[in-house]
Design a protein that fits this description.
The chain is of the alpha+beta class. It folds into 4 domains: about 100 residues, Zinc finger, CHC2-typedomain (DNA Primase, Chain A, Alpha-Beta Complex); about 130 residues, DNA primase DNAg catalytic core, N-terminal domain (Alpha-Beta Complex); about 80 residues, no CATH class; about 160 residues. Helix content is about 55%, strand content about 10%. It starts with 6 loop residues before the first helix and ends with a helix.
Amino acid sequence: MANFIPEETIRTIENAADIIEIVSESVVLKKAGKNYVGLCPFHSEKTPSFTVNPDKQIFHCFGCGVGGNIFNFLMKQDGMSFPDAVRMLARRCGIEIPTPQMAPAQKRRISEKENLYALNRRIMEFYQHMLMKSTKGDKARKYLNRRGMTDRIIESFKLGYAPGSWDSLVKVFSKNKMPQTLIQKSGMIVTKENSNRTWDRFRDRIIFPIFNSSMQIIGFGGRVMDDSLPKYLNSPETPVYNKSRSLYGLHAARRPARVDKKIYIAEGYFDVLALHQHRIANAVATLGTSMTAEHVRILKGIIGKQGQVILVYDSDAAGIKAARRSIELFKKEYVDARIMVLPTGHDPDSYLLEFGSERFVELAGHALGIIPFLIDSAVKKHGLSIEGKIRIIADLLDTLAAIGDDVERSLYIKDLAERIGVDEVAIIEKVRKISKSEKNKLQVLEVHGKNGPVDKKSSGGKGIRLEKQIIAMLLQFPEIVPEIIKRNVIDHFEDKNLRSIGKMIILKNTAAGEKKISGSERNNSGRIADILSSISEPEIRSTVISLIIEDVDWDQSGCNKLLTQFENSCKRGDNDLLKEIRAAENNNDHALLLQLLKQKQIQARKKYLVKNTKVNHDKLVKSRI
């Protein structure tokens, strides 16, 4: 699709969109100089290293190295393809993408996702009609009324009803002559293997459309109105529906959750609707799957570092088990998660109907943190007999050892010791053994790595740091390019990646010739976008983005000082090498001497090439004059 969207249109969309606005929908950002920073949505971190530069319209995480422009962010965050990201932003900005002349097969392939979104909307409208306008929906409407669902909630969440017949939706598809391949990809009908027989996936169920952040319908859930099994049924994953990244109700919960810095995670559709019905709008549910790391990162991006997630689970054993499964994920992602266990016999829906929202919020205020919840659960599970206490400690050892903060770990050990009546020192000693074992494993990994010994020689020495600064200067202050060329600075670089990046930037600037970009930083983003688009290697691209995004103000004087510092560093390097050669000669270390002489030979060859390049450059300049 990228080949069918004119480059000019892509640049127009990129310039019209606001990267801060887009990223802020998923990440809580705070101003830090020229940049904005927040917790990275793509990896676990306690301290914000995710940086967005609004002037250059790029982002970069100094923790995991992910970075790029506004399109790259949407592709990574929402699992979009590049064409989908461009189209989504075009719609938001009110920019029309010209439709090129394409073969029918190309059009079908390119528009598959958009056709699926359109098909899902038509399916939703059919189910809505069945619920609200057809006599077939009488039973479903009465059921929803009994559950306390108001017309406001039914309309807001676009609830529907799937009739009990086997082919209600099949007939709709057939009548409208919809493409069979598209119907199959929607997952809304089931086809028997080795047969042409098809039937509706959902029958005699309340239907819950599932929306993405752009308010497009990506899938459906269905619930029975009696004791039939399965109670809940979800549509399968499709090109537009990924369960590990989707949460029911997130489209409605995002804004209030951002304001309150708190979000409730319930188990079912009706739990979410009940919470919204009682004006607790910051509530979501998973979609037939356990919580995933992607879910947690999405939520962390919304509520921020100081935010809180409250897991609302039933009081039965299954609810407790579900809560325990989710805990490790939240710990790894450094999210403050609380466990709210409802009184016996209640789920969120029934509790709210009986006691109301004020009591619910009050109860949520007493929700236990992760470690207190685990301690409480272990005590209830094993009891306080001698055997029970042994099992309690065994259950909690790994959890206590994994706590990174010494003070926090000490306080929880003290609490546990007092709770079960065991000597605190004994628990500390057991935890210390576990911690020591883990530390030894970590040290082995640091020395040997996953695939063998690690070379500890650092690539981040002073010389490399200066080279990176020069690249950053080139990217952010293109006026220095003539001076860089004059001094042949790039040819003296030791790091081959930085050398190739430097030459590419100079080439891009030289190719621009007399064409000068206007002085605004916003237009400067076009030059940067051009540079980034020419880099295919992810590692080099990440390096360039990290250097572009640095918050440094360059001027001619500062640039010249840096170049002089780099040249002096190169001279010192030559002198240091000569000293090492003399020392090797004096010590009769022939092996080292041979190695150093080879290094000197390489340097001499490089100097010759640099000098030759300078001569040719001077001749070219004179010929132009």
